[in-house]
Design a protein that fits this description.
Elements (H helix, E strand, L loop, with lengths): L8 H17 L5 H12 L3 H15 L7 H35 L6
Length: about 110
């Protein structure tokens, strides 16, 4: 179960939007300066907001990286692979058990 989110989704979206707008209004403004300025106004930690902005840029295709949707798909596929490996181990153990029952001379 994931940890509860400290900041509501609406605040997250608003803070990201404000950083993007601040940088559009002042092209010379760095991401760090915009994040510090907006973070203090919205009550969001600057490092947290910086991460949100970076991920929003990745999701929008403005920056290289793994998108949120791709990360979720990867996580789901990894869980599925883990479950399939577990099922294969169970099936292998069951097949060797039944093989011994049919022919006790087998070395397994």
């Amino acid at each position: 179960m994931p940890a509860p989110r400290k900041y509501p989704q609406e605040l997250r979206e608003r803070a990201i939007r404000l950083v993007v707008e601040a940088r559009e209004q002042d092209p010379g403004l760095s991401v760090n300066a915009a994040v510090v300025r907006i973070g203090s106004r919205t009550g969001v930690n600057a490092d947290t907001l910086r991460g949100w902005v970076k991920q929003a840029d990745v999701d929008a295709g403005r920056r290289a990286g793994t998108t949120t949707d791709d990360a979720r798909k990867i996580k789901d596929l990894e869980a599925e692979v883990k479950e399939l490996k577990r099922a294969n181990e169970i099936l292998l153990a069951a097949s060797s058990f039944f093989a011994r029952e049919l022919d006790p001379r087998l070395p397994w």
